[in-house]
Amino acid sequence: MSAWVLPDHIADVLPSEARHIEEIRRDLLDMARCYGYELVMPPLLEHLESLLSGTGEALDLQTFKLVDQLSGRMMGLRADTTPQVARIDAHLLNRRGVTRLCYCGPVVHTRPGGPHATREPLQFGAEIYGHAGVEADLEILTLALDALRAVNAGALTVDLADARVVNALLGASGMPASQCELVHVALAEKDGSAIQALTAGVPLPIAQGLQQLVDLYGDISVLDRALATLPALPEVQEAIGGLRWLAGHIEGARVSIDLSDLRGYAYYTGARFSIFSRSANDALARGGRYDEVGSVFGRKRPAVGFSLDVKALAEAVEPKPLHLAVRAPWGEAPSLREAIAKLRKQGETVVRVLPGHENEVDEFQCDRELVQIADRWVVKAV
Amino acid sequence: MSAWVLPDHIADVLPSEARHIEEIRRDLLDMARCYGYELVMPPLLEHLESLLSGTGEALDLQTFKLVDQLSGRMMGLRADTTPQVARIDAHLLNRRGVTRLCYCGPVVHTRPGGPHATREPLQFGAEIYGHAGVEADLEILTLALDALRAVNAGALTVDLADARVVNALLGASGMPASQCELVHVALAEKDGSAIQALTAGVPLPIAQGLQQLVDLYGDISVLDRALATLPALPEVQEAIGGLRWLAGHIEGARVSIDLSDLRGYAYYTGARFSIFSRSANDALARGGRYDEVGSVFGRKRPAVGFSLDVKALAEAVEPKPLHLAVRAPWGEAPSLREAIAKLRKQGETVVRVLPGHENEVDEFQCDRELVQIADRWVVKAV
């Protein structure tokens, strides 16, 4: 096989796409900064047990493993940045109050997430540690929406769910964990008859509640139906009240509810959201509350956050118009050097024609040219 | 061992340092863009044979190896971005004329380069493909100097060398490769008596030339001494002429010459440079000509470039003053939301105090506060 063939689901990012990704990256980080989120850069490699502590089997399978020659210990190539940021909050910063952190860097997966997915997403995310209230949930969701607006992601829809609804019903069902897993699968497939069969021995209100979940999706009125039909467990009521408050505070985006949505159920502990636009099939950003995330590092703190893949986002949004360049001749005159330096200082791209290449068409699109007229260098349209 | 201990020579980058690195990263990329260098983002993982083709044993030892589950083939985690960019020039862009490319991303090393070095540098670099002239060497060197000036790296010194001088002398010596290796070692140690012993059977002018190399370092006058004392081989004369031209065109930096400097001799094929500042022991940036770099990808093109580690550079330059923030209260009034949105749009960082945390000192430094006076929200000093 040729030396230049890349592995499957691994690709180079070429100039116009790379520029687009870099611009989006800056817009996202700038939005997080102006919300007061501090940037951190966790390493690509960590000891396997810190990368995977408490994160579940799915992340383990997604993580490349390596031997550290210095220590002989196993290391992992990060497949998700969130556990690293939780570690930083828990140990390195170790603050008492609210901590807002953001990050942007590559993660690597052993297998692609889908038929066209890259194994090397560029993950951007933001997180609040130390606040258990819905206000923190709302701030994260609002930041996610504003970040997507900053890159002109178009009309947005927020799907809301809450991990506590299913968890409370399963907790009250008395079913063993293995059977709960089967209910999870049936819920994910919205398979009502499977749920009915699985909950045959469960107290009736709970069994009915689990069966009703598969129909509890749609617009905001789903929350009223849920209150009326689900058993009045405190966690269920708290979750529904929280979603109602959140939904009422979302501005400029359509809101939908799906109480049987279980994506990431092993991870989230409260409200969760996915943000969609018309230009992409998959969610552009996902987030929610995962209060347990720091506990393996000895410091359980409330946590809420979101993340997205900048590469996928770049495919879903239009690039900014290309910044056109000025072509300048080669030459040693100080006046030419000064004219070029001045244009570059003004933010212009100035491409110098190297000797012997005067007649080439520039790959970098030049719409203007620096030419000498009398004693002065002036920019003229090409 | 605790789950939060990182491997040796691997570290988290915490907020103030991360901000500093991100600012430098943007300044470097912006400088490359205004010179007309197009950004590319090669992947972290590639098949081992494409990552290591023609790059020598040193890079092989520095490269982490992984098995690709999808194909069963060996992959490497990139330890250097240059061979990847050469591959992109050779195959993906495949242009006839001059191509200018730049990149910025992490590389990973199995072992640290020094007692305090990170195993995860953030490599920034720029390269010109398709131009064999000294003008391209000068453009790359000038860009490297301007990039370092853009981040206020202080007074700079350029060390110039040329791989052709030693190579031409060794080529003319008739010595076998194994003996040439020993001369390389002796030159690196500036060990004149070892060179004398090794070159005992070599034609006298060549042997004397190799012996003289160890003294051929210092200011620009070294080039005159070299012309007078080294054998008049065409490659040696071309190299010295090129260095003289380059040295004469460097502005605003001290120039020194070291003709016995062999760093990267397996890699460079012509003039090479290292740029130093007073604030760092090691070079801030290194570069030069390596015309062979694309040949393993079936397309040998002239190539000249430079690279640097953004993390090391961040340690050597002062961070910009911290952008101070505005503290804003929690509240649901539309006028408050609008006031906050307006400040953020102006580029201000506005940190909202979450309920229950009103009395906390913000970790994000706030020098101003958004307060309501009569019906209006105004920014006041804290």
Keywords, please?
37% helix; BirA Bifunctional Protein, domain 2; elongated; four-stranded mixed β-sheet; alpha+beta; 3 domains; nine-stranded mixed β-sheet; homodimer
Name the chain pair whose interface involves the most residues.
A-B, 100 and 100 residues
Helix/strand-derived class of chain A?
alpha+beta
Biggest sheet of chain A, open or closed, and with what strands and sense? 9 strands, mixed
CATH topology of the largest domain in chain A: BirA Bifunctional Protein, domain 2
Overall CATH architecture of the largest domain in chain A: 2-Layer Sandwich
Mean residue pLDDT of chain A: 91
What order do the strands of the largest sheet of chain A run in, or round the barrel if closed? 1-5-6-12-11-10-7-9-8
Low-confidence stretches of chain A: none
SSE sequence of chain A, one letter per element: HEEHHEEHEEHEHHHHEHHEEEEHEHEEE
Strand content of chain A: 15-25%
Could you walk me through the main structural features you see in this protein, from its secondary elements to its overall organization?
Two copies of one chain form a homodimer. By secondary structure, chain A is of the alpha+beta class. Chain A has three domains: 1-153 and 285-322, BirA Bifunctional Protein, domain 2 (2-Layer Sandwich); 155-278, Bira Bifunctional Protein, Domain 2 (BirA Bifunctional Protein, domain 2); 325-381, no CATH class. In chain A, 37% of the residues lie in helices and 22% in strands. Chain A has 13 helices and 16 strands. The first copy, chain A, has helices at residues 15-34, 48-52, 57-62, 82-93, 134-150, 163-173, 177-188, 192-198, 204-213, 222-229, 234-249, 310-316, 334-345; strands at residues 38-39, 45-47, 64-67, 74-77, 99-106, 122-129, 156-162, 217-218, 254-258, 271-277, 285-289, 303-309, 325-328, 350-352, 366-373, 376-381. In chain A, the strands form three sheets. Chain A has a nine-stranded mixed beta sheet, with helices on both faces. In chain A, helix 1 runs antiparallel to helix 5. The longest helix of chain A has 20 residues, at 15-34. Chain A is elongated.
